[in-house]
Structures are given as structure tokens and as C-alpha cells.
Design a protein that fits this description.
single chain, four-stranded mixed beta sheet, about 20% strand, globular
Length: about 400
């Protein structure tokens, strides 16, 4: 939800423009700071940022998004397999129109992925259906030293200059095989009945795959061995976040009606978080809507998602736990900025707040990117956040 000042909303950021009385109250009663979630040498992806927020040494554990999303949907990664995130995208002529195939439904996407597996699956490649446009591609014997551009970084750009390139000579066969697979997918998807129907309805066609973020099975310690708590859970509509939770040793809690968009089931997520918090020590509650609005470049929608977060997540959780006898700590933060102006992620530090009943407040009065600069925590880096949260 972090952003840059935007002229259409009086040179305010989205968070500043949004009506967020509960986040402002927690910032006023708590302590604030900035967090650099993207270590040097890494691109500002959600996988990098969330691993950092959760306290992992990214350089030691990161193996790409594909393996994390595979874990979320129950796909095992064997030692000789490389996993990749596999988007269904919309191609318009030479342009990559958008990264989400017009936010294709999970039912439609699942049918297309199963069609791709039947048509293009082999001893080398296998396709595995996830949620909406987010899926997994496994490659046996692949070389992960390839340069893959995330599709959400290049909306409305020619796609061919961003095809997969080898970083090392021995990765050329992998890059060539994957690029051939992209073009084969375009040949067979363009006339699929689902895409013909979508075009008839004025929707974007899911007429290409876009593999990216390759890696092998990661070596991650459970969080309960790194920080002083015994049990935890993760709640998210996004396969990537649930996959991180699997490797982090968190229970994955599924909530009916979650979409990853502005129309997600906020109340269901808040209720699930409160229920889990009565049984477990730690809950990681992830809301994707503001990120997707940023990728769409939709300023009014992004403002609305932040207001929904405040009213439909933060308010009910705070009003419930403030009356509990047991002390609960609330932390609120984005994982990375997704500015509407450029419609992709940046590596700027994000604002965070930490509140509990006995915390000594700092001077910050509102929750936003600029107020947090004066927070008592100053600027933290990567895994310093979790250490700060747990006072270690």
C-alpha cells in the first residue's frame, strides 16, 4: 500500500489520502519506523520482501517464487526439479498487455492450465494450477541461472525483448526451452474456447504463459526455532505467501471468499485471525488488494483498499483484542511500495508501526510514509523487524 505523492490526490500518498482512523490511532499510541525490506542485490519482489519481514536471511534461503507457490498448492519439488512461477498473461500483438490475463477467474485458469499440461506437459515440463493467474511450472534438470523479467514489471511493453536469457553459458538450453514453451503456449491458447468466450465478453484473453523466478527446494528453518513463540498461522489469498508459510512452519488457514483483490472477504480474514490468535502465538495476516490496485495504476481503487484495510481488518481486530486479558501486539506494514505511477514494485523503505498496551509511544501522530520517518525505531533493515517485534 506504500506509494509516492500523487498529483491527483493533492500530492499526498495513497495512505495519506485514505481515511484510516484506526491505523492513525495505533501509530499515535505505538511506535513507528521505516523498514528496508529489499536486501542489496535483490529485486523488490513480494517473495523477497515477505521473507525479509518474517526475519529470514534472504541470501541464505531464497530459491525463487515457484518453489514457494508450489508448496502452497501441495506440489512437491524433487532434487532434480526446478520450479517457476507461471503467470497466465494477456498478449496484444507484440505487447504484454497485463500480467494477470485481466484477473482471470480461478475456474477458467484451472481449465487452461490442465489444457496446457495435456498439450505441452512432458518428461521435461509439468504445469500445476494455482489461483487466478498465478500457477507453477516445473522443469526437470533446469538451470536456474537465467534472467527472467516479472510480467508485472512490463505492462504495455513489447514482450520479446524480455524473453528469458541465460546468465551463464550452460543455462542457454534452459532459456531456449522455456522461450519455446512460451511461443507454443501462445499458439494453442489463442483459439481455446475460454479465450474466445472472454474476447466475446470484452475481457482480456489468457493467451500466453510467462514463466519466471526459478529455483530449487529452499532450506528454511521454521520460525518457531528462530523467534520466541511456539505456534503460528498464515492467512492469505496468495499462493506465494501461503507457500512461505508452509516452509516457515506456520499453519495455512484458508478463508472462503478471498480473492486477492478489493472484493476479498475482509471480515472473514479478520475473524479467522482472531480465532487463530486465541489458539496460537503468532498470526501473519496478508492482504493483497492494495498491491493489485497499484499494478493497475488505479489511484481511487488503491485508496479504497487502504480504507477497507483500516475499517474491515484493523478496526475489528483491535476492538476485540483490546479487551483481552492476555496482551497482544499488533504490527502493521506493507511488504514493499507499488506506486500507481509506475505500476510495479520499488525498493524504497516502507512505514511500519508496532503497538501493544504497555508500549512507550513516540511522537508520530499518523500512519504514513513520511510520518514514519520521525518514528522511534528509525530505519531498520530486513530481519531487524522481527527481532524488534519480539524484543530480541
Amino acid at each position: 500500500m506504500a506509494d509516492e505523492p500523487i498529483s491527483s490526490i493533492n500530492n499526498k500518498t495513497v495512505i495519506q489520502a485514505a481515511h484510516t482512523p484506526y491505523m492513525d490511532m495505533l501509530a499515535r499510541k505505538g511506535r513507528n519506523g521505516l523498514l528496508d525490506t529489499i536486501p542489496k542485490g535483490f529485486s523488490p519482489g513480494s517473495e523477497i520482501a515477505n521473507l525479509s519481514v518474517l526475519g529470514y536471511d534472504v541470501a541464505a534461503v531464497y530459491e525463487g517464487r515457484g518453489v514457494l507457490e508450489a508448496a502452497s498448492i501441495g506440489v512437491d519439488i524433487h532434487n532434480d526439479e526446478m520450479a517457476m512461477r507461471c503467470n497466465l498473461v494477456s498478449i496484444d500483438g507484440e505487447l504484454l498487455k497485463n500480467h494477470s490475463a485481466g484477473h482471470i477467474s480461478t475456474d477458467e485458469a484451472s481449465e487452461l492450465i490442465h489444457f496446457l499440461e495435456k498439450s505441452l506437459g512432458s518428461e521435461l515440463f509439468s504445469f500445476h494450477a494455482g489461483v487466478s493467474y498465478r500457477h507453477v511450472l516445473k522443469m526437470r534438470g533446469g538451470n536456474k541461472f537465467i534472467n527472467c523479467t516479472p510480467p508485472h514489471d512490463i505492462p504495455e511493453n513489447p514482450f520479446k525483448p524480455y524473453l528469458i536469457k541465460p546468465k551463464k553459458n550452460d543455462a542457454k538450453d534452459t532459456a531456449d526451452s522455456l522461450n519455446n514453451l512460451i511461443f507454443k503456449s501462445q499458439e494453442i491458447l489463442k483459439d481455446h474456447p475460454i479465450n474466445i468466450k472472454r474476447i466475446t465478453e470484452g475481457k482480456d484473453a489468457a493467451n500466453s504463459i510467462w514463466p519466471w523466478s526459478p529455483g530449487f527446494r529452499p532450506k528454511m528453518q521454521p520460525l518457531c526455532k528462530m523467534f520466541p513463540f511456539k505456534s503460528g498461522s498464515v492467512i492469505s489469498a496468495v499462493d506465494l505467501i501461503r507457500g512461505i508459510g508452509v516452509y516457515a512452519g506456520l499453519e495455512v488457514i484458508m478463508v472462503e471468499g478471498v480473492t486477492g483483490l478489493y472484493d476479498t472477504n475482509y471480515e472473514g480474514k479478520a475473524e479467522a485471525a482472531l480465532k487463530s490468535l486465541k489458539e496460537k502465538d503468532f498470526v501473519y495476516l496478508h492482504i493483497e488488494a492494495s498491491d493489485e490496485a497499484g499494478h493497475e495504476g488505479d489511484v481511487p481503487l488503491k485508496v479504497k483498499t487502504v480504507e477497507y484495510l483500516d475499517k474491515r481488518i484493523v478496526k475489528p481486530i483491535y476492538e476485540e483484542i483490546v479487551n483481552w486479558d492476555e496482551q497482544v501486539t499488533i504490527a502493521i506494514l506493507p511488504d514493499h511500495p507499488t506506486p500507481c505511477a509506475i505500476r510495479t514494485h520499488t525498493r524504497d523503505p516502507i512505514p511500519f508501526l508496532i503497538w501493544h498496551k504497555d508500549i512507550e509511544p513516540d511522537s508520530v501522530q499518523t500512519y504514513d510514509e513520511f510520518a514514519a520517518r520521525n518514528g522511534g525505531y528509525g530505519l531498520l533493515h530486513s530481519n531487524q523487524f522481527m527481532k524488534t517485534l519480539f524484543n530480541i
